[in-house]
Amino acid sequence: MIGLPLAFAFPLVLIALAGLPVLYYLLRVTPPPPRQVPLPTLPLVKDLATPERQASRTPWWLLALRLLLVTCAILAVAGPRWAPEANPVGTGQGPLVVLIDNGWAAAGDWAERRNRLLSVLENASSRPVALRASADEPQPLVLTSATQATERLRSLQPVAYTPDRTRQFDRIRTFMDENTAATALWLSDGVAVSEADGATAAFAAALGPRLTVIAAEQNPVRAITAASNDRDATVVTLSRAATGAEGAAGVIRAYDARARALGETTFDFAGAGETTARLAIPLEVRNDITRIEVLDGRSAGSVHLLDAGAQRRKVAVVSGETADTAQPLVSGTYFVTKALTPFASVLETPRGMDPLARTLDDRPELVVLVDVATVSGTMLEHLERFVEDGGVLVRFAGSGLAASSDSLLPVRLRRGGRVLGGALSWEKPQRLAAFPAESPFAGIAVSTDITIERQVLAEPEPALTERTWAALSDGTPLVTAARRGKGMVVLFHVTADTSWSNLPLSGVFVDMLRKILPLAVPGAARAETRADLANPRQALDGFGQFSAPLPTTRAISRSAPPVATPEHPAGFYGPVEAAFAVNVLPPGAKLLPLSWGGAAPAPLRIRPPVDLRPPLLIAALGLFLLDALAVVWLSGLLRFGGRRMAAASLVLALLLPLTAPPPAHGQTQQRPQPSRQDIEASLQSRLAYIRTGNGEVDETSQLGLASLSRVLAARTAMDPAPPAGLDPAKDELVFYSLIYWPVTPDQPMPSDAALRRIDQFMKNGGTVIFDTRDASAVPGSGGTTAENRRLRQMLANLDIPEIEPVPRDHVLTKTFYLLEKLVGRYAQGETWVEAMPRGAGDEKRPARAGDRVSPIVITSNDLAAAWAVDRSGQPRYPMVPGEPRQREMALRAGINLVMYAMTGNYKADQVHIPALLERLGQ
Amino acid sequence: MATARLIPPLGRSIGPATATAAQSLARVLPRLALQARQVSAQVSFGIHGRRRAGPGETFWQFRPFMSGEPADRIDWRRSARDDRLYVREREWEVASTYWLWIDLSASMNYASSLALQSKRDRAIITGLAMADLLVRSGERVGLIGLTTPIVSRSIIARLADALVLSTERHRQDFPLAAPPGPRDRVILIGDFILPADTFASQFRALTARGAPGIAVQVRDPAEAEFPFSGETEFFAPDEATRWRVGDAGDMQKAYRERIGAHEAALRQACISRGWTFYAHSTGHPATEGVMNIAMLLSGGAGGAR
Q1: With an 8 Å Cβ cutoff, is B192 touching chain A?
Q2: Which fold has domain B14-50+94-298?
Q3: Which of A75, A169, A274, B187 is in Cβ range 3.0-4.6 Å of A203 for a Cys bridge?
Q4: How far apart are the C-alpha atoms of B263 and B196, rounded to whole Å?
Q5: Residue A769: what pLDDT?
């Protein structure tokens, strides 16, 4: 509007205001209806001459009220906005060049940036526009219409690497030189990553006043540049471009591969540009960290991915003892495995031919040989190459080693070794001396009750002292080590079991092995031993969220520096077990504030235009209520309660707009109140089903689960409340442990929010039974039924684990009843659950369970229809094929399912096996 | 300013719809009957029977013989005591018949905010209370056209039954029945909203045989005062006619004049036939009306002789 910072979204609507005089005239001649009063004496008086009745007019105040009401409504429809932008950017003549930074640093307030630029493009709607993002290829600029630029802008997303915006500078300068009428606009993120800023200043100086820079006043960008493990904590290095107090403190949180939070800590820049934070988490948990992020960082730079390089080492324990399996709990392998398991992933030694060769195929970082006397032939070659490539070989002595030795030893050994404190010796058993300062073991407190009774001895040689990591109190080396190639060979001069010493029983043994672990170079560095190229698996987008890799992403070489480039954006590359993490920022990178030379940049944040529609609509509504009240009052209906009531109503109507909530701006969201259903669900456990919208199916689910609940209450310790029908889009699922989901082909696809809830529900340990109810149906096109296809569509968007048909030994078939299979209304359908890893010795166990409850059970047997009975207790649906006791079996399947969801792998516990074996008659 | 409303009519028993009527009776009449009994109980205190000479059995008084009287009236035993002749009078014990009529026409179903109850209820209460009062003082009471004269302790219930079972024919503005005999007495209770000359002609027909009586006009205060103002549309209880008034307040004076003239005409018609006319407002208590009617009945108006 002229003179006022008032704009209308639909100014044409204002033409309707011209109709107000007509309305005024119409309203004026249409009075409110008269009061209606009964009068029995009417026949006596109806011929009375009524005085000249003047045309009754609408009272002036009612007229004004109505005109105001209509005016408010028309203005509201026109969409007025109070936009006090003092000096709009983008207005003007000639071509407009727009450069927007879309690196990760712009992701934090990307929506704001985009909206700001959209409003600029709106201002420049009549100008030709060249829109260039900093991550674009530096092609020559092409002018488009502002509309096309707007479309392009809407599809722009921040990228997960640091684009080199200086490449765009030349193109823009060239263009500006060619088009002297053009002006330029740069929506900058204001962050320079470890670069000298000459190019920016030069660019700004060259364009001078023709360049407008828009940047945030306070740059909130904070990024994690490095994360490394030290003894007690993971040290996270953070950097930022701003130096002020705002946004100086924050929280970082670590997640594992399944996005579970493992720990968090706070950081504070305290005026500096760089700081560190210590995530003090136990090592065994720390090894699981794959992702560290700044809370509310919302950019790829605030996320740091960790790969195997920072994770636990893989250790292979190979034993030469054949008697191990006879007495597994006193073997050396057992002690070593026990000591290493919390800190490293210990590979199981394959049995059979040539275990060592097959172990090396698994690419461990550390190989422990427990009393393997000699390694020879090709094995020796393999092991030597392993050590040369950076592997660590830890050997324990044994009777075999004392007798003969090979080349894979740090020191030369004397034959025979020595026995201390034995029958033929007058030397006392030796104790451990303090560890030398240069030894990796330095700092471990030496326990005095460790005694060494027997050991192998090293030949004295000049290098012996420096190779000694631990020695006995008489100076005899106990642990020796030598570098070989990139790797290392470590020798314990005692056995890993207790026959030579009680060292394996002490905590010192664990500490020593733990200290050796970090010496093993992570597998990624040993490039020659594995596939060099890693394919993109999981990519970060600019906002720091995981997403599918872009098609332009290329496989990355493991020898390349793990820094994101346009071809290799940040993310995980390579298979899960050999992941290669690429981060946005290289270690040691620094964020610096960008300087544009002279003029201060225009602020990014402008006061948002105030939408005047809600207050106008509320005013119109209030006026409408007033009008209704006035009409009622005029017609006399309100007179019953006297004037006071009418006055009170009027006051109420006047106050109503004041009590209306203010229009929601930004994040003024109220905490949602828990619904009544949620409160009830949290107080008593109950079964739940998903409402499909199909009345019959829903009723069947309701009846079926109610019937199952009754049977559960009668036969088991569980006494569930009546089942609940849920809408995953609206209802909170966290209160339920088992949700029955009948799949109908006409069911609408769950919304994204609903899918997230279901995903969360399954991740939190809930179980969803998807029932396609089509076991008897004839498969349609493609060999599937409509329900099946619908289920696939739904599950496509969920993180579903690998599934398998319920194996005979699955704990699901044992939780309450011993069942052959889970039948429902149909008997022939297969039931699918999460696939369980199959371990050694599983064949002997009657019941098997994973670590957790299967989050998903898929059946086609129409369980609810089998359970459903109507109010008189009669079954609602016939069974197919209707074998005797099929309904009972279906109920038992239901009980087992509920018990499985409630108790998990409890029945698979060893304690129950004897009873199960007895009952199975085995 | 007053408001007014119509109340639902008493159960109509057109044809065999007696069930509806019985329901209606059960709903409304017990309350009215009870009120009627209470009213008559209060009033019986204030009235002193028929303490006057007349045909009867019990001794009333001796009075001096007046010349010209039949000689056989002389009570010789009393006269023998002194020099004068005395006539022995007995108390009047002849029961007379009272015909009661209660207006149940549509216009009675009306109550304004100024009234204590609707005109219909007030008419029924007043009528039944009078009937009870009369029966207790030895008279026979019947409803015109509906019952024979009844002497019964449960007169209220019986008349109420008859009222409910009355048909549309009996719910006119004015009783259309054979005129009662000259010895009978008539109590008409209604609002008499009909043109004054119509009333006069029908009234003449009813009193053709010279039956004395009292006409009780039950009137709502709103009907009398016309306390309305503002733009108003009046409608008759039967919804047939409507009367739109620009400002009811302006009409008040003319209305009151018209109604006052109408009432005066009715009163004149009654008085001309030797009747009593009593205007009763539902803004006053029912007891007051019954008391006044009883007083007017016993106070000589329409005396038998």
Answers
A1: no
A2: Rossmann fold (3.40.50)
A3: A169
A4: 8
A5: 92
